[in-house]
Amino acid sequence: MKNSHTSYSILDLALVSEGNSLKQTYNDALKLAQHAEKYGYTRYWLAEHHNAPNIASSATSILIGYIAEGTTTLRIGSGGIMLPNHSPLLVAEQFGTLGSLYPNRIDLGLGRAPGTDGETAKAIRSDFMEAAHSFPNEIDKIQKYFSADNSTAKVRATVAEGVEVPLYILGSSTDSAHLAAKKGLPYAFASHFATTHLMEALAIYHNEFQPSKDLEKPYVLAGVNIIVADTDEEAQRLSTSLIRMIVGILTGKRDYVQPPTALTDDLKEVMQHPQVYQMLKYSFIGSKATVKDQVKKFLAETNADELIAVTHIYDANERIRSYELFAELMKELN
């Protein structure tokens, strides 16, 4: 059964398009968030990645502050902060500060992956693997630092105590589903690239969910790739930048986002490659009517409470247009 209302949000990696400076990329991210606010989006999240020339959201909490400062009602947050890269105390201080500057607008989504390659993960934190294994305990620490009851502890994140910053658990496999359910926290699944375990992870989360003071019943956010244009052909043309990007990820040759081209037979063949095909499983590309049908089907299958749209389009204005059309179709579905 479909939810009576499905929220819709944005996940942004502040992707650097070929020919753009970092400053331009950040300005475009802010412009997108300002439009998203007008279009009725619930939240705008930024993802932490490192050592990738085409991703500019590595200093995630700083960028969240910049986007929050330029918007007024939209929730701004992390999708996510990769917790094993950080000290829980410092994360609590950063997000406690953001939560005080922008009350009731900051989300803290937490993931356990490094958001980078092994060598870079070691450069960020030499005991990365150990920190990844203690992910559940690290979340406990963050919850403690945000608690007003921590005011008598020896170690405190004083700027976080009692500040309202909701936590979200991110996942791309089944591990985090158990954890989010056990902790009674909302669960965001990265189905925009990790498609294999989506249904299994959602079943685990719903079956094992334990209500908490944060959440009475399960709440699922699902990532989907969305490219909407005025016609199917135009959307397919725009999607060629995404296809090239995925090939870059799979071959280890990351590059700036490339301008779109015609959808050639070669690219169509690439899309049928098992790995690419699997990654693009929850990619909805086409006109508003086409994407609306695909989204409707996805919602019927997953019963997700919220969709997080990931739109990798080369041109900033075409990206904004796609998000505008997506907001229109979500309003029609609701």
From TrEMBL:
SUPFAM superfamilies given in the database record: Bacterial luciferase-like (SSF51679)
Domain of life of the source: Bacteria
Enzyme class: oxidoreductase
GO molecular function, one term: oxidoreductase activity
E.C. numbers: 1.-.-.-
InterPro entries associated with the record: Bact_Lucif_Oxidored, CmoO-like, Luciferase-like_dom, Luciferase-like_sf
Keyword Oxidoreductase part of the UniProt annotation: yes
Luciferase-like domain: residues covered: 11-244
Protein keywords: Oxidoreductase
Gene3D superfamilies, alphabetized: Luciferase-like domain
UniProt family annotation: To bacterial alkanal monooxygenase alpha and beta chains.
Cross-referenced NCBIfam families: oxido_grp_1
Protein name: LLM class flavin-dependent oxidoreductase
Organism per entry: Flavobacterium ardleyense
